[in-house]
Amino acid sequence: QVQLVESGGGLVQAGGSLRLSCVASRAIFSNTYAAWYRQAPGKQRVLVADITSTGTIYYADSVKGRFTISRDNAKNTVYLQTNNLEPEDTAVYYCHARISATEYYWGQGTQVTVSS
């Protein structure tokens, strides 16, 4: 029912910034929970940040103060602004949207590589 298309990843030096985007194929984000996860090689996929349909936001301790999650309902897009990137942030970043307990979607992932 919904396709999530991610973009914005790339190679950046430590201290740099990237803005990751997740565009949905139809308008869903005004009424959905959305999140960004990341998975480093050999590691579990972990929650980075999320935002509820009412705007409540959570950040993992590892990114708090550096990353910002936001959404633009008119553009059907969720963003993750990543600032002051560190090599430890290197991972594939995945967009996640949950419409209900039984309807949820994942993006394809976008690679973020931070060099030291």
Structure at a glance:
It contains no helices and eleven strands. With 116 residues, the protein is mainly beta.
Sum up the structure in keywords.
116 residues, 0% helix, single chain, seven-stranded mixed sheet
Verbal overview:
This protein starts with a strand and ends with a strand. The protein is globular and about 40 Å long. The protein is mostly beta strands. It is built from no helices and 11 strands.
Question: Gap between N and C termini, in Å?
Answer: 40 Å
Sheet bearing the most strands, described? 7 strands, mixed
Which class of secondary structure composition applies to the elements?
mainly beta
Q: Estimate what percentage of residues fall within beta strands.
A: over 45%
Count helical runs: 0
Report mean pLDDT, rounded to a whole number: 96
Instruction: From the alpha carbons, calculate the radius of gyration and give it in angstroms.
Output: 13 Å
The proportion of residues forming helix, as a percent range, comes to under 10%
Multimer state: single chain
Shape call: globular
Total strands = 11
Helix-strand topology string: EEEEEEEEEEE
Low-confidence stretches: none
Task: Note the topology.
Blueprint: E1 4-7, E2 10-13, E3 18-24, E4 33-39, E5 46-51, E6 57-59, E7 67-72, E8 77-82, E9 91-100, E10 103-106, E11 110-115
Parallel strand pairs: 2-11
Antiparallel strand pairs: 1-3, 3-8, 4-5, 4-9, 5-6, 7-8, 9-10, 9-11
